[in-house]
Write a structure and sequence with these properties.
It comes from Cellulomonas algicola. The protein is of the alpha+beta class and 280 residues long. 25% of the residues lie in helices and 31% in strands. The strands form two sheets. A seven-stranded antiparallel sheet has the order 3-2-4-1-10-9-11. The chain has a six-stranded antiparallel sheet with strand order 5-6-7-8-12-13. A hairpin with a 2-residue loop joins strand 12 and strand 13. The longest helix has 18 residues, at 160-177.
């Protein structure tokens, strides 16, 4: 459906992540190796945090990432230690800026690769479950943005794993009551600018691909002559829909039905399962 990248570590220019790797996100927008579709040309977005504001910067466009000159200009100059980036292949919703990921609310960013099956038939029920104070902030028409606002409603800002579990549980419960066998598919990433949570889950148990980098210090020891590794800090963590390169041993698959938590260079993988909110 889509491809995405989440980065935390020492500040880098955006082009170091989006354009320079051999299998960069820009390359994946045109020639994805592991995606459901090889081409992800229905827009893109990038969000980043810096010292100027607690609210992350956000740039989204309906242009294909591989041909957007403004993205190249921006990426060569913006530096950040926390970056979310996403290239989109629509599953049916309109190609418009408000449908491009990442989505932002206050100091939070959210992005998704996958879909809510039968979304048209359950959209009304799901959006009625969104807190009334949050509902006006839904600007687009995607299932992903509705999922984000359900998670916000269910406590994302206090406990992201529990909130995402409840949001997905609500979607599954609603979908199955409408006859949808496998309502949820995909990977999700959430950050508050300091911590990162990445989820891999599908109702069917066959989720979209997701990888994380092996510890940089270990890789630097294994490949002492690789200059790229010497430019990365030891606390660098990159979570991606598919590996950015072919360096053997550099990428580890995030397990099915799990939540990866990254906090200051430390990481933990927890089991993940949806929970149906009591109100449902």
């Amino acid at each position: 459906m889509c491809r995405w990248l989440a980065y935390t570590g020492s500040p880098v220019t955006l082009d170091e992540l989006l354009d320079k790797p051999a299998n960069s996100l820009v390359v994946q927008s045109l020639h994805s190796r592991l995606g459901a579709e090889p081409t992800n040309g229905d827009g893109f977005g990038v969000g980043w945090y810096d010292e100027h504001s607690a609210t992350p910067g956000l740039f989204r466009s309906i242009e294909p990432a591989w041909s957007d000159r403004n993205l190249r200009e921006l990426a060569a100059h913006v530096r950040s230690g926390t970056v979310f980036a996403h290239v989109r292949a629509t599953s049916g919703s309109a190609v418009q800026q408000t449908n491009c990921h990442p989505f932002r609310h206050d100091g939070w960013l959210f992005m998704h690769n996958g879909f809510v099956d039968g979304f048209a038939s359950i959209k009304r029920d799901l959006q009625l479950a969104v807190d009334p104070s949050l509902f006006p902030h839904i600007e687009g028409t995607t299932d992903s943005e509705t999922l984000f606002h359900l998670a916000l409603t269910l406590g994302l800002q206090d406990d992201p794993p529990s909130a995402v579990a409840a949001a997905i549980g609500l979607v599954e419960d609603t979908g199955q009551r409408h006859g949808v066998t496998y309502p949820v598919q995909g990977t999700v990433a959430v950050t508050d600018g300091r911590r990162l949570w990445a989820f891999r889950y599908s109702s069917e148990g066959r989720s979209r691909s997701l990888f994380r980098n092996r510890d940089v210090a270990v890789l630097r020891h294994q490949y002492p002559d690789n200059p790229v590794l010497h430019d990365l800090s030891d606390d660098t963590r990159i979570v991606v829909s598919e590996p950015l390169g072919d360096l053997r041993g550099a990428w580890l698959e995030v397990p099915e039905s799990s939540c990866l938590v990254v906090d200051g260079g430390e990481e933990e993988i927890l089991p993940f399962a949806p929970t149906v909110p009591v109100a449902a």
